[in-house]
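As the next step, I selected for study one protein, both as residues and as discrete backbone shape codes, as given directly below:
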Amino acid sequence: MKPPLATVWPRLRVPTAILVIGLAVASYGVMLESSGWIMCNFKAFYCAAHVLATGGNPYKAAPLSACEAASSPAFFEPRDGLIVPAPLPGYAIAAIVPFSALTFPVAAVVWSCLLAICAALAIVLFARLGLGNVWAIAVALSIAVMGDGLMSGELEPIALLGIALAAWSASRPHPSVRSLAAMSCGLALAFAEPQIGIAAAIACAMLSRRGALVGAGVVAVLGLVSLVALGVHENVAYIRDVLPAQSSSELSAVAQFSLSWVLGRLGVTPGAALLAGHLQWIAMLGVTAWFARTMLARTNPEIAVLAGPAFVVVGGPYLHPDHIGLAIPAAMWIASRSLRPAWLFAVPLVALAVPLIIPIFMESSVPLPMVVITAASVAAFVGGEYGGSERAALYSAAAVAAALFVSAALLNVVGDNATTIAAPALSQAIPQASWAHFVASHVVTTWPVWLVKAPTWLGILATAGVLVMLALPRAVRLPERAYGQ
């Protein structure tokens, strides 16, 4: 008689998790390598830092283009005059300046190792906060955060570590110099993604007076670093010109999940769509502040910090899958409570852990069976661990595999790049003009893309909705026991 899976699973968990994580990261790497986009985002960041270090303006097109066009074998090299913008605040560009002293290939390898360390430390901290087994957490983050971060050089692993540090600090029953230092470092790292960092800072500020002082101090220091690095004029230009231009350039990008994208696709004028997205993002910051003052947040302070990123990725003007990945810790917190039925509360987590838009991109350069195996494996691992049963694992894998096959079939039949749109009129002096033209000629406008994005939107809305419901005065009382305890 064969032993049931539950009996042998403790021995299989670690090697299975390593295999699944390797598949996820490798698939993402194959996708980017085949299209020539390996470490594409980091090259833009590296070049912005290089321009700043040599006394130039990192927000101008000409110096950024000259740096990005330099040959870097095995890594991203822009074609046809494309300029990838680096819309980072001054403090973030200043932090990357030391990497510009290295050649780009060496800097890219070091940067990727740094991101891997950040992700690993964040996973350990989340496990200590009771969000799950360390391997379950790692698998849940493997596609949405680690694949993109390690292969394109994005900043999400750094922001993820910041969220973990701030949440860990907030959870300490007796504040100490050590925990306040952790909160300071955490918030500073979370500001690698400013819209996420602001939410985390608001949550900390609403939790306690000490948190408010720490948040204000971090914002002041980062602002001072930006002023020293760029000066007053360029900081004003960043807020006045660069950020609006970046949002405009990506309003129709297929990877956008924002409210502004939805409204733009429905025919709303670009200005009105972006305004609505900004107003809605501000409203979600208000929800973050309210949530941090509820009894749920008072008795579980870590969720106040984890919830901030989950709330601010509900819509807004500018939202990529990697930003959405930073809502996964909040979804893990919900799924790790002893709520019943467990499989139901694991559904939003699976939806966020496997954003179908990424596997669909992979399908163009990675064999579809490999894509399905990778995505279904992540879904099965996460669904089984947090859903609490073999059946939950099986259903999660089957649902993701079916969704991928249906999405791929529809996009192949209807066409995934059927038309182009007019690019917004932006100043040629900034790199966003070049990026806007690239987006306009690589935009998916066919209707199946709505179905591809629907599960991720479901995960976002369900995570935020459950948090709000649990925080209401008459909400069900959370059990004391959590995952892994």
The chain has 23 helices and no strands. The mean pLDDT is 90.
